């Protein structure tokens, strides 16, 4: 049975290893850029603990089976320029051997269930233009509403927006299909 639970600081080293292992896949060979474990761990642990002073609600969740981490998702309130009533998916990573099992949908649905009662009406996702996951976000109904350049202008990023009610319905439909 898959359990979705909040991540703890103790989980963060494995989370960061998962993020780093997913990074080159996300870059899709378009850019050579390495993430440094210690820097990523420090950043995300700090981010995890400093929501209140940033007037934010930060959610870090993981999917586990028999205490084995299968995937994780991070979310927070979006920047106002991306939508006053939006929340942002800050990260969604699933181990390759656990993909195709609806884990990402399960994690997204869990996040939606947290942010809908907080009066959020949309979800924003920043995703590398050439990443394989761009097709996934289009399939889920995301619309690209702007483009961004990151890593000194070398990395093209598509910024998706989702109507939260529609995304919620899509997740329910997908999860109901055995």
UniProtKB/TrEMBL annotation:
Pfam family, one: Acetyltransf_1
Keyword Membrane: no
Family matches, as InterPro entries: Acyl_CoA_acyltransferase (IPR016181), GNAT_dom (IPR000182)
UniProt entry keywords in alphabetical sequence: Acyltransferase, Transferase
Example GO molecular function: acyltransferase activity, transferring groups other than amino-acyl groups
UniProt keyword Transport present: no
CDD domains: NAT_SF
EC numbers on record: 2.3.1.-
SUPFAM superfamilies xref list: Acyl-CoA N-acyltransferases (Nat)
UniProt superkingdom: Bacteria
Domain N-acetyltransferase, chain residue ranges per copy: 2-165
Name this protein carries in UniProt: GNAT family N-acetyltransferase
Organism: Peloplasma aerotolerans
Upper taxonomic lineage: Bacteria, Bacillati, Mycoplasmatota, Mollicutes, Acholeplasmatales
């Amino acid at each position: 049975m898959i359990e979705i639970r909040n991540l703890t600081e103790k989980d963060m080293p494995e989370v960061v290893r998962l993020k780093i292992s997913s990074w080159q896949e996300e870059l899709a060979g378009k850019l050579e850029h390495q993430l440094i474990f210690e820097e990523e761990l420090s950043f995300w642990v700090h981010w995890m603990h400093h929501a209140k002073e940033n007037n934010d609600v930060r959610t870090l969740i993981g999917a586990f089976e028999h205490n084995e981490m299968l995937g994780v998702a991070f979310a927070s309130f979006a920047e106002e320029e991306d939508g006053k009533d939006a929340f942002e998916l800050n990260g969604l990573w699933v181990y390759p051997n656990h993909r195709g099992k609806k884990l990402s949908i399960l994690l997204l649905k869990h996040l939606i269930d947290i942010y809908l009662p907080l009066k959020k009406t949309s979800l924003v996702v920043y995703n590398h233009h050439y990443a394989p996951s761009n097709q996934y976000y289009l399939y889920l109904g995301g619309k690209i509403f702007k483009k961004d350049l990151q890593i000194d202008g070398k990395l093209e990023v598509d910024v998706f927006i989702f109507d939260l009610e529609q995304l919620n319905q899509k997740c329910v439909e997908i999860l109901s299909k055995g």
